[in-house]
Amino acid sequence: MIKNLLFTLIFAVLLSSCSQSLSDKQTETTEKLTEKQRATKAKLEKRDINLPSGSTLLDKDSGFSFLDLIGADSKTDYAVNSLLFNVALDKIEFMPLLSVDANSGVIVTDWYSVDGGKTRIKINIRIVNQEMTNESLSVNLFQQTYKESKWTDNGKNDSQANKIKESILSTARSLKIASEL
Question: In Å, what is the CA distance from 132 to each residue of 12, 87, 120, 172?
């Protein structure tokens, strides 16, 4: 009886110390992440992107890291404004994405139907530099209409593209000001 009690007590102490060690490692790993890495991790979790267990992508010995693959490595010097890029990505998150490249600042959506499927739009966004000016951001919105069993190009919709551009710039500027307080 005493042996069982002693064994249970020792087992409980070992178990709690192991869980504390694991918790410390998780906290330590989280603290080492840059702000950009934490934001990327949050986006991955929000979009429910999970790697299968046993995946070697996150191993340090794999030659590259998962953060390198998605463009969130803190060692990379970006030519584009990451805040502007993330705001642009958030603004169009309802649309299916064809291509996203954080290093070059390019976001390309797939066609998205509006008006009950009679009209569809596609948006291309390009962030050119680190600034937050009108010249730093290029937004193109293409529109098509479904007529006679086929999609007909309506060309670019510059007025809607400018509204999206102003919305992205306004939000990014507000976030930058708020982060500097």
Answer: 56, 12, 29, 8
As a whole number of angstroms, the distance between CA 77 and CA 162 comes to 29
Q: What is the pLDDT of residues 28-53, one digit of tens each?
A: 444 555 555 565 556 556 655 554 55
pLDDT digits (tens, 9 = 90+) for 122-168: 999 999 988 899 999 999 999 999 999 999 999 999 999 999 999 99
Name the residue with tokens 């290029």. 138
Distance (Å, whole) CA 103 – CA 109: 17
Query: Are the C-beta atoms of 141 and 154 separated by less than 8 Å?
Result: no
* Distance from C-alpha of 42 to C-alpha of 27, rounded to nearest angstrom: 15
Cβ contact 70:40 at 8 Å: yes
Amino acid letter, 135: E
Rounded Cα distance between 42 and 39, Å, is 5
Q: Tell me the CATH architecture of domain 82-180.
A: 2-Layer Sandwich (3.30)
Find the DSSP H helices in the chain.
2-32, 35-46, 66-69, 82-91, 158-180
Q: What is the DSSP letter of 53?
A: T
User: What's the CA gap between 89 and 107, in Å, rounded?
Assistant: 7
